[in-house]
Specification:
Elements (H helix, E strand, L loop, with lengths): L3 E9 L7 E9 L2 H24 L4 H21 L2 E3 L3 E4 L6 E4 L8 E4 L6 E6 H4 L5
Helix pairs in contact: 1-2
Length: 134
């Protein structure tokens, strides 16, 4: 998988501090691929729900799974329009320690955890938010 260098704004969650700019190698998923991934994961969730529904004494959980979990899986899968390509790191805006960004982590904003200071770090698409905040 080859990704594009995507400019991101890195900041602390729920903070008014100025955000810093960085780049992450991201794979931008086109609409047909997002639909395909959604259909595949929805079919798997529906199959699991069907098997649980056929199991004696577990059928109620299968029905609830089909009514609640399957649509939830579909929506959450379709919402993910980007994925990180390869293991990367960003600098924590609070303490400066490297924050690991795992391969295939995705969705905007990318939410991370700094092991150095325990801060919740957020990386958002700088192209959609108009650049760095002052």
């Amino acid at each position: 998988m080859i990704g594009d260098e995507t400019p991101v704004q890195v900041g602390l969650m729920d903070s008014e501090r100025a955000r810093t700019m960085a780049t992450l190698r991201m794979l931008h998923l086109p609409l047909p691929r997002r639909i395909g991934r959604t259909l595949l994961r929805t079919a798997i969730a529906a199959a699991v729900s069907a098997v649980v529904t056929l199991t004696p004494l577990m059928h109620l959980f299968g029905i609830l799974g089909f009514l609640i979990a399957v649509p939830l899986v579909a929506v959450l899968t379709f919402r993910k329009s980007v994925m990180v390509v390869g293991n990367q790191s960003l600098s924590c805006p609070k303490c400066g320690a490297p924050v690991a960004v795992k391969n295939k982590q995705g969705g905007w904003p990318v939410r991370l955890h700094c092991d150095g200071c325990g801060a919740s770090v957020v990386a958002s698409d700088a192209r959609k938010s108009g650049g760095a905040q002052d």
